[in-house]
């Protein structure tokens, strides 16, 4: 028994020694980078199974307590909003430095000052969606276009013109010349910026609305394409209930809102910033650009001479008498510088008291125009004073056909001369008085002629001889009266001799 008591303590001592050696080996080889640490560990595990595993579990638990909890996933809309804000700021900065030009004609271009462009561009915040977008101020662009119009418009301004007779005229253009279409040109400049990513508030609202509509449509179509029966069977096969949409439950915009934001982001990203070039739109144009907007091709109408000339390249292409508006009734053909509005064959001219078909119609101002008048037997003179038109320029049919062939829409028409209503009334009264005086003089001479004839017949001349002799006497008296009148006029005229 004594030997057995000695044997058990010895075995225990050896076991403890081995365990200690194993621990030292683990400590040594486990921290060494030069020796494989797996062999000692497997050795210890063979001896003390379970203890190393427990140690590992404890170590893993300690490591887990030291790690940070995972962050919550940021909703797509917040990421998009941040991206859009950054893009908008960058885009605005680039647009402010982009050269901007407005093409007025093939030879004339206006460059918008950089300070002006900067005033047009800003980054705007949408209070509902919390988004930024590049704002282009259309009102300020319109103000700039107004200034351009004041600089280049010629309608309503004075134009110089030399008539066929050499008279210098200074007329205000009525509907002829250069006039910019301010609204269309403003739209053109605005579109140039919109093509590069800038938006007006109205365009931003339209973009968001259209994107929402497109996204909603896509969602609806996706729901319609789902087979309800298959969906029911799928629900039966799984014991796990569907998880709720936490993003939607949290009130974060999704679906169409995110789609709208993606569209805005893509627009800001894709639109290239390059020099902006807009084309001006003109509501009316002159024949040439510059101070003399009339040029060398035009229609000239002299109301005093009742004559029309059509010039082509400075040469007369058509020349004809005419009859213009009835002056005594106040239907005068207006003076001024106008433009052929259009040409029409076989038109019917209508007014309060007339309906007249014409073959050639060329209006130039408020229903007043050139046209054929085959019902007239004569043209020119002073016919227009008492028997003129309602305001139009009546032409012989052959001349109207020639003019119709050569004139074009927008061609300048210069009208001058003639009488106003008061002048026409005075002229008509003077003509009436002259006619009455002439009739009275004719009656007096007729009485004298009859008396002379009677006297010569009393002297034995036949009736024919007496009439001839009486007429000869009267002609002689008329010639003497005309000679005396001419002499009086010559005496009253100033001397033409050069001063000494």
Structure description:
The protein is an alpha+beta fold. It has 4 domains: 2-56; 76-152 and 180-222 and 254-277, no CATH class; 298-419, Beta Barrel (L,D-transpeptidase catalytic domain-like), CATH 2.40.440.10; 425-477. 50% of the residues lie in helices and 18% in strands. It is built from 15 helices and 18 strands. The protein has helices at residues 2-31, 38-47, 51-66, 76-97, 114-120, 138-152, 182-194, 201-224, 228-237, 246-249, 256-270, 383-387, 397-406, 421-458, 463-492; strands at 100-103, 109-111, 121-126, 131-136, 158-162, 168-172, 179-180, 276-279, 282-284, 298-302, 307-312, 315-321, 336-339, 344-350, 355-365, 368-372, 393-395, 412-416. The strands form 6 sheets. It has a 5-stranded mixed β-sheet with strand order 12-11-10-18-13, with helices on one face. It has a 4-stranded mixed β-sheet with strand order 14-15-16-17, with helices on one face. Strand 3 and strand 4 form a beta hairpin. Helix 1 (2-31) runs antiparallel to helix 2 (38-47), helix 4 (76-97) runs parallel beside helix 11 (256-270) and helix 14 crosses helix 15 (463-492). The N and C termini lie far apart (182 Å). Residues 1-55, 231-256 and 496-500 have low confidence and may be disordered.
């Amino acid at each position: 028994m004594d030997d057995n008591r000695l044997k058990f303590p010895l075995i225990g001592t050896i076991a403890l020694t081995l365990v200690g050696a194993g621990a030292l080996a683990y400590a040594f080889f486990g921290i060494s980078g030069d020796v494989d640490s797996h062999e000692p560990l497997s050795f210890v595990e063979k001896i003390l199974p379970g203890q190393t595993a427990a140690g590992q579990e404890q170590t893993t638990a300690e490591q887990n307590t030291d790690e940070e909890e995972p962050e919550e996933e940021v909703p797509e809309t917040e990421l998009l909003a941040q991206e859009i804000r950054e893009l908008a700021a960058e885009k605005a900065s680039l647009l402010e430095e982009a050269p901007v030009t407005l093409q007025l004609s093939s030879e004339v271009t206006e460059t918008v000052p950089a300070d002006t462009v900067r005033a047009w561009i800003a980054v705007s915040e949408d209070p509902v969606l919390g988004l930024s977008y590049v704002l282009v101020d259309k009102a300020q662009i319109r103000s700039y276009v107004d200034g351009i119009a004041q600089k280049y418009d010629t309608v309503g301004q004075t134009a110089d013109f030399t008539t066929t007779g050499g008279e210098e005229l200074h007329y205000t253009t009525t509907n002829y010349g250069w006039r910019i279409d301010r609204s269309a040109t403003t739209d053109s400049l605005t579109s140039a910026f919109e093509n590069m990513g800038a938006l007006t508030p109205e365009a931003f609202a339209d973009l968001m609305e259209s994107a929402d509509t497109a996204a909603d449509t896509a969602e609806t179509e996706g729901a319609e394409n789902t087979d309800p029966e298959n969906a029911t069977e799928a629900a039966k096969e799984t014991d796990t209930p569907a998880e709720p949409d936490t993003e939607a439950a949290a009130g974060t915009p999704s679906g169409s809102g995110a789609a709208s934001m993606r569209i805005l982001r893509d627009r800001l990203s894709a639109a290239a910033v390059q020099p902006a070039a807009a084309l001006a739109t003109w509501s009316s144009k002159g024949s040439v650009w510059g101070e003399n907007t009339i040029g060398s091709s035009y229609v000239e109408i002299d109301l005093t001479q009742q004559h029309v000339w059509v010039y082509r390249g400075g040469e007369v292409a058509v020349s004809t008498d005419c009859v213009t508006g009835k002056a005594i009734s106040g239907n005068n053909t207006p003076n001024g510088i106008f433009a052929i509005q259009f040409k029409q064959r076989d038109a019917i001219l209508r007014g309060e008291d007339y309906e007249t078909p014409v073959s050639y119609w060329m209006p130039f101002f408020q229903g007043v125009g050139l046209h054929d008048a085959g019902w007239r037997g004569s043209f020119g003179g002073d016919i227009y004073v008492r028997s003129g038109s309602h305001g139009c320029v009546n032409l012989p049919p052959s001349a109207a056909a020639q003019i119709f062939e050569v004139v074009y829409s927008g061609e300048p028409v210069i009208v001058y001369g003639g009488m106003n209503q008061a002048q026409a009334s005075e002229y008509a009264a003077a003509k009436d008085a002259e006619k009455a005086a002439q009739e009275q003089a004719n009656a007096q001479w007729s009485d004298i002629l009859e008396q002379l004839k009677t006297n010569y017949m009393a002297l034995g001349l036949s009736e024919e001889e007496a009439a001839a002799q009486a007429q000869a006497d009267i002609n002689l008296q008329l010639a003497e009266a005309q000679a005396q009148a001419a002499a009086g006029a010559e005496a009253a005229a100033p001397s033409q001799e050069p001063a000494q």
